[in-house]
Amino acid sequence: MIDLFKALCLALVSLPLASQTLSAQEPPLQLYSGTYRAGNDGYRVSFQLTGNRVLLTVGTRNCLGQMTGTLMQDQLGNYVIMDDDYETTQCLIALRPNAQSATQGSFDLDQGPGCTYHHGASCQFSIGNLQLQPGS
Questions:
Q1: 67, 61, 63: which is closest to 112 by C-alpha?
Q2: Which of 52, 64, 73, 101 has the lowest CB atom count within 10 Å?
């Protein structure tokens, strides 16, 4: 019953993200285990990937947040992070290729609704150009 509930939640929460389909000219998203980081002006996001498990951390001068989840693919083949606490928070994060993803293994994150439970209203998990760190 829990697996059916998970599948239903993934389908329902993915609907707003379904309009963000990948176009033919965008490079494929290549993900490798390791730590990806991005940030500017005191805003930092860290994305640690081990197999299909993700630890996502965000920090600014005014907030600190963290979530764990599972890297999955939606019905369109796009990568999403399903929050471990999705049954109560409905947080889903989409990963999108960016201009540098073909050569540097980088991507952008776009958070869906319900993620403020993990970081509060003063920051978010959405950020561009997360890059794999050397030696991670």
A1: 67
A2: 73
d(CA 109, CA 95): 5
Give the separation between CA 107 and CA 57, rounded to whole angstroms. Answer: 16
Q: Checking phi first, is residue 129 left (phi over 0); if not, alpha (psi -120 to 50) or beta?
A: left
Q: What pTM was computed for the model?
A: 0.72
The full DSSP string for 8-45 is: HHHHHHHGGGTTSPPPTTSPPP---SEEEEEEETTEEE
User: Helix H segments across the chain?
Assistant: 2-14, 86-89, 101-104, 116-119
pLDDT at 50 over 90: yes
Long-range Cβ contacts of 28-31 (<8 Å, 24+ apart): 28/97, 28/101, 28/102, 29/79, 29/95, 29/96, 29/97, 29/101, 29/107, 30/101, 30/102, 30/105, 31/71, 31/79, 31/95, 31/105, 31/107
The predicted-structure confidence for 99-113, as pLDDT tens digits, reads as follows 666 556 688 899 988
Average pLDDT, the chain: 76
